[in-house]
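Our working data are protein records whose layout never changes between entries. An example says more than a description, so a record of this kind follows.
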Amino acid sequence: MPEPYDVITMGRIGVDLYPLQTGLPLARVEAFGKFLGGSPTNVAVAAARLGRRVAVVTRTGQDAFGEYLHQQLREFGVDDRWVTAVGEYPTPVTFCEIFPPDDFPLYFYRQPKAPDLDIHASELDLEAVRSARVFWMTGTGLCAEPSCSATLAALRARNRSGITVFDLDWRPMFWESPPGAAADGPLDNRPNSAADGPPDTAANNRPRPAADAPPHPAASARYREALAHATVAVGNLDECEIATGEREPYAAARALLAAGVELAVVKQGPGGVLAVHRDGTVADVPPLPVEVVNGLGAGDAFGGALCHGLLAGWDTARIMRYANAAGAIVASRLACSSAMPFPHEVEAALTAGSVTATTPRPDAPAEGTPAVASPAAPTNAPPAASPPPAPAEPPPAAAPQPPPAPAKANPLPPPPNPERPHDGPGLFRLRPRPPAHAPPGSGRRGRRPASQAAVRRQQRAADDHRRRSSRPRLTGRRRA
């Protein structure tokens, strides 16, 4: 029998196209970075970064983006044997806008249907799902068939064995609107739901339905059915309200325990995280201070670290602190999947007590990816190991001097390519240093402009030259 996986996640996958320029709407963004995306897939990457043996169950389109996702999964150390292709639907693409510190609108392109919602129960390796030490599923997997039936089949196969995590993952745009719902319902799609930041002010001030009227009855019913098979539930306040009808953190945690889980984790954004165990253990952990670059993906890093801590057998408070630190590290970086931290980075953040933003250079590779030099790419920087310039010739002296040592070659950098003057991928454009002989008025730096006195001297010299050249010349010799 093969060795069981530490973590198997099931659900959404896609390509994230994140702008490489922050503080701009999509209409003004000129360059994007391409990344592996999808919440449960990112959780798998986060757990793999922390040293766990991980696989993911999902589907992509039968296209170039699907091939890219397979490549990325393998590079991150995530087993892709259960990632299959669907010929009828394209691989989903997600855009976002980055307005730090707390505004990151998402734009999903999953029409006519996302391949990850076309997972069939008959295609599942239920023995592998049953034997995994942690099985992670999400609320999005319940929003449509056949994914909903497949997800519930996997939960029933688990039969509450091991650790079964239900990420409440509420994305209302993936669900059909309930009958009679207003166009602007009580729970809109929060832009920063992946980072579990505070809901927007309009959503907070909007009137909410009565306690006995769930915001989305169909979603609430499916969430309750899944909770009966889970041992851990994780969600922010909006997601807890969908699952339980409660928004107050402690009330939501108690309602999740009553629904059947052993551990309820309520993420409160700036309020930190609350974890309540059925044995009475309570951990209310404040957030780790962080300079936010992009909050998207912080919740997925939290999830991967949560799995890691549960497998390690740590106490609840330590798990929450560790997961908080992992999420803060990703929030301090531009990317998502490639920004997932390694164990030493999480430990360093916990030791420091805060996380500083690490925005990459525009021409640097994404976090966690190796730098690959391109031979065709021009550069204006000299080689790192360039020897010092040769010494100047000594001045002549009365006494004979020994000949100077031969000068070593000082390799010069290749000339800049005029077709592409060393520009980064969208953040800014670097112009090559102009030559010292750049003509005046060329708009580039050259020789220092002459002083007014020097200009007058040059003018007088030119006038004298013209006067001399205008005098008539005598031919032949003058007679005596």
In short: The mean pLDDT is 79. The first strand starts at residue 7 and ends at 10.
